[in-house]
Design a protein that fits this description.
Layout: E1 2-3, E2 8-12, E3 16-18, E4 21-22, E5 27-31, E6 34-36, E7 39-40, E8 45-48, E9 53-55, E10 58-59, E11 67-68, E12 73-77, E13 81-87, E14 92-96, E15 99-105, E16 110-113, E17 118-120, E18 123-124, E19 131-134, E20 139-141, E21 144-145, E22 149-152, E23 157-159, E24 162-163, E25 168-171, E26 176-182, E27 187-190, E28 193-199, E29 204-207, E30 211-218, E31 221-225, E32 228-235, E33 238-242, E34 245-251, E35 256-260, E36 263-269, E37 274-278, E38 282-288, E39 293-296, E40 301-307, E41 312-316, E42 323-330, E43 335-339, E44 341-348, E45 353-357, E46 360-366, E47 371-374, E48 379-385, E49 390-393, E50 398-404, E51 409-412, E52 417-420, E53 425-431, E54 436-439, E55 443-449, E56 454-457, E57 462-464, E58 466-468, E59 473-476, E60 481-483, E61 486-487, E62 492-495, E63 500-506, E64 511-514, E65 518-523, E66 528-531, E67 535-537, E68 540-541, E69 546-549, E70 554-556, E71 559-560, E72 565-568, E73 572-574, E74 577-578, E75 583-586, E76 596-601, E77 607-614, E78 617-624, E79 632-636, E80 642-646
Parallel strand pairs: 1-4, 2-5, 3-6, 4-7, 5-8, 6-9, 7-10, 8-12, 9-13, 11-13, 12-14, 13-15, 14-16, 15-17, 15-18, 16-19, 17-20, 18-21, 19-22, 20-23, 21-24, 22-25, 23-26, 24-26, 25-27, 26-28, 27-29, 28-30, 29-31, 30-32, 31-33, 32-34, 33-35, 34-36, 35-37, 36-38, 37-39, 38-40, 39-41, 40-42, ...
Antiparallel strand pairs: 75-80, 76-77, 77-78, 79-80
Length: 660
């Protein structure tokens, strides 16, 4: 049968027409009938209405089992059905509510999928410039798009389609796409809703103000600018969030996610993956697994984070706003490194590593087996160091409100200056060479100052149990008090005017310089105390020990044991007691072979006056106790001065105990 130009053939319900030949300008309308293997010339029109069915289309001169070539128009209305259709260049299809399946479109065709239409099995060839729209109420299903530009309008939907090789699809606001696959060269832009998608290597999904969920991007790119998303699995490629809100993200090997001015929650960063928060981004409930890393910079905030063994958390931005981390737990084998950051509520477990520079930390707990290093600009407040943990304060590092348990250690490194304030309670501390610890209140129960290090006790501060090692120095300023300090070999102590030191022990090779204030000490063999000014009270000078009284120094109640020496270069000495074998060194009185010594007791036999005369120069000393003149002998000291050594002739002449 032939339908010529200007003629219209209507095929009604129940009719079947085969091998129809429709010439240019002819028109066929299917109103419930069936048209099989028709032959159409260019310029003809086919309309499939409700109940109509067309399958297998051929063009005049070409039998291609259903081909519509340039200049042709196929309209499928509501209730119509078209299957096994191939559309060639410059053709137009209008689907207005029918059912269309197995449709293959060549280059430069135009498709309009209107309300009520279901289009399934669509194929767009590689490189096609075909454009089509899916309107409200229409559905695109299981399409294979290797080219073309598709727009899903508000109210339309796309389900199960595959985009690749230059295909570009836009899901407008109010539209929906589900179970999508975007392969290499494919692009999907979402302003509406995306529920379930895979992005393969080389593919791209961009959510621009829309909503996305259940997205897997392994080797491909995923980007959001505005909008919200949930359940993202990202790996093998770079993804980015800008002004977005996302919940439920898992980053796997090779997954790189940049978060800028966005909010991200419930995140797992696996081995080989990286999460970077910057420019006012906010993250929370983040877990960093072994081999994973998180970077916080540019004023970004990270809340409630756990860094597992092998994981890394970095806060870095030297010139921009500080990155801020709240509530972080660093497990054994994990690392937190911060430069120009702020950390609140940090717990460092055994084996965890923490490196801080130019960073503020508060409410920090470090556990047994862990080490915290405070470097230049790092400041820690409300810091708790538990048993077996160690705090190292390097140059420029600071800590306040510090509490340590028994067995914890605070180490003041070279060039560091550490201030112990009123709220600090430190069980044990070491000051290394070049380090300085300043007491301004608070407590350090056990302090050891190593060679080249120093400890300073400031006004109103009181410290006990200090051990000053070789080459180290203890400085007690006006108003400060030291108790039971131990000055070891090569160590030194300096008391300023108005300072005090009670119960100090000066060991062999140790020395104390009393420039002012007052002190009570025991000077052991090889130890030396020099009283330049101030006052030394009830000092015990043991065998081999030495007390030196300077020009304006004051000494009272000193007891010199056998083998001990008190050197008097001036000052005031009272209540001095000598034991058998003790020596007084009058360094300023030149020794002569004709010198004499005498001793005269008082009437109560409790003290007496020792007089030494050398070359016409006389010097007197009051001694407390009972002595006999015959017990004193003169000799030359190492520098030409006069030594007086007391060796009583019998035990009966031993000195009495001191009375005060």
């Amino acid at each position: 049968m032939i339908v010529g130009s200007g003629k219209v053939l209507v095929i009604s319900s129940g009719m079947t027409v085969e091998n129809l030949d429709v010439r240019s300008g002819g028109e066929v309308v299917l109103e419930g009938g069936t048209l099989v293997n028709p032959r159409f010339e260019p310029g003809s029109i086919e309309t499939v209405t409700s109940g109509g069915r067309i399958s297998g289309i051929a063009v005049s001169g070409i039998n291609n089992n259903g081909t519509i070539v340039g200049g042709r128009e196929l309209v499928v209305s509501s209730g119509g059905e078209a299957t096994d259709i191939t559309i060639a260049s410059q053709s137009t299809l209008v689907f207005a509510g029918g059912s269309v399946s197995d449709l293959k479109v060549d280059n430069y065709a135009y498709l309009e999928v209107a309300a009520g239409t279901t289009l399934s099995g669509l194929e767009l060839e590689t490189g096609t410039a075909t454009q089509f729209t899916v309107s409200a109420g229409a559905t695109l299903m299981s399409a294979s798009l290797t080219g073309g530009q598709e727009t899903i309008l508000s109210g339309g939907s796309d389900s199960g389609s595959i985009l690749s090789s230059g295909a570009w699809e836009s899901v407008d606001s109010g539209a929906k796409a589900v179970r999508m696959t975007v392969a290499s060269g494919g692009n999907l832009e979402v302003r509406g809703t995306l529920d379930g998608a895979r992005v393969l290597r080389g593919g791209t999904i961009e959510v621009a103000g829309g909503t996305a969920s259940a997205i897997t991007a392994l080797g491909g790119g995923f980007a959001m600018e505005g909008g919200t998303a949930t359940k993202l699995l990202l790996g093998g490629g770079y993804s980015q969030l800008l002004d977005a809100t996302v919940t439920g993200v898992t980053l796997v090997n090779g997954g790189l996610l940049g978060v800028d001015s966005s909010t991200i929650n419930d995140v797992v960063v696996s081995s080989g993956a990286n999460l970077t928060l910057e420019t006012a981004a906010k993250g929370s409930d983040v877990t960093v697994l072994g081999g994973g890393s998180v970077i916080v910079s540019g004023g970004a905030r990270l809340n409630q984070t756990v860094v597992q063994s092998g994981g890394m958390l970095e806060i870095e931005d030297i010139f921009g706003p500080r990155g801020i981390v709240n509530g972080v737990e660093v497990m054994s084998g994990a690392t937190l490194s911060a430069q120009h950051g702020a950390i609140h509520d940090l717990k460092l477990h055994a084996g965890g590593q923490l490196f801080l520079a130019d960073t503020l930390v508060d409410n920090l707990t470090i556990s047994r087996g862990t080490t915290l290093t405070l470097s230049s600009g790092a400041r820690a407040a409300a810091l708790t160091v538990l048993n077996g943990a160690r705090l190292i304060v390097s140059s420029g590092g600071q800590a306040a409100k510090l509490t340590t348990s028994a067995g914890a250690l605070v180490q003041i490194a070279s060039a560091a200056a550490f201030r112990v304030g009123k709220e600090d309670d430190i069980a044990r501390a070491i000051v290394e060479s070049g380090g300085n610890l300043v007491f301004a209140g608070g407590t350090v129960s056990d302090l050891r100052v190593h060679g080249g290090g120093s400890a300073t006790i400031a006004a109103k501060a009181k410290e006990s149990g200090l051990v000053i090692g070789f080459g180290a120095e203890l400085i007690v300023l006006a108003g400060g008090t030291a108790q039971k300090a131990i000055i070891s070999r090569g160590g030194g102590e300096v008391l300023s005017s108005g300072a005090a030191d009670f119960g100090a022990t000066i060991l062999s090779g140790g020395s104390a310089s009393i420039d002012g204030g007052s002190t009570k000490a025991a000077i052991l063999s090889g130890g030396t105390q020099t009283v330049l000014g101030g006052r030394a009270i009830n000092t015990v000078v043991a065998s081999g020990g030495k007390q030196v009284v300077g020009y304006i120094g004051t000494v009272s109640g000193t007891k010199v044991q056998s083998g001990g020496t008190i050197e008097i270069d001036g000052g005031t000495v009272s209540g001095l007691t000598l034991r058998k074998g003790a020596t007084i060194d009058l360094a300023g009185l030149a020794f002569t072979s004709s010198g004499t010594v005498s001793f005269v007791e008082n009437a109560a036999h409790t003290s007496g006056t020792l007089t030494v005369t050398e070359g016409g120069t006389k010097q007197t000393i009051t001694l407390f106790g009972q002595y006999v003149a015959a017990g004193f002998s003169l000799s030359k000291d190492a520098n030409g001065g006069t030594d007086i050594t007391y060796k009583p002739i019998s035990a009966a002449h031993a000195p009495l105990a001191a009375h005060h």
